[in-house]
Amino acid sequence: MVDDIKEVLVTSEALAARIRELGEKISADYADKDILMVGVLRGAVIFMADLARAISRPVALDFIAVSSYGASTTSSGVVRIIKDLDEDIAGRHLLIVEDIIDSGLTLKYLYDNLLSRNPASVRICTLLSKPSRRKVDVPVDYNGFTIPDDFVVGYGLDFAEKYRNLPYVGVLKPEAYKSQAAHRYE
Ligand code: IMP
Ligand code: MG
What we know:
This protein has 186 residues and is α/β, with parallel strands linked by helices. Helix content is 24%, strand content 31%.
């Protein structure tokens, strides 16, 4: 697994330090509110677990899973909810937790969808952002790290369901994804 990593982009120490900061900022911003954290499965799970413990406000956790309709339609932003939230979110303060924002299409769809269910507020927290790849604007309130246009894995992020358990974020060697199943990320 480690042999497939070209370079460590964010060490586990840097992740821990930044998540501590994000947790303090979020706790201050929601000083008088309870938070419903909405994790986007599956990539956000590891980040969300650490972030939740860095927040000193009461938090509830819920999860949503989306899949895009297929490679040819990803650019249209058509995504499908394959596991919906369990909670009724009307009147709640939502914090969407995502692993990475690339084109922004997934999150734009989710944001609009959740907003239509009348929550009290919706904010977005992403661990990583690749602004150079953005196709649509999404209102990101909290961003862990801005990274260059490389395919990254680890700390929740996968390639073909592999590498999620690496404790850091690393750049995958191109050989590693060329030798495995085709991926939409070209
Ligand atoms: P978007 O809709 O293009 O913003 O895509 C976001 C989703 O694509 C993320 O939630 C990830 O699952 C996946 N993704 C985008 N870039 C990467 C990457 O560098 N490594 C792993 N997954 C990625
Ligand atoms: Mg994801």
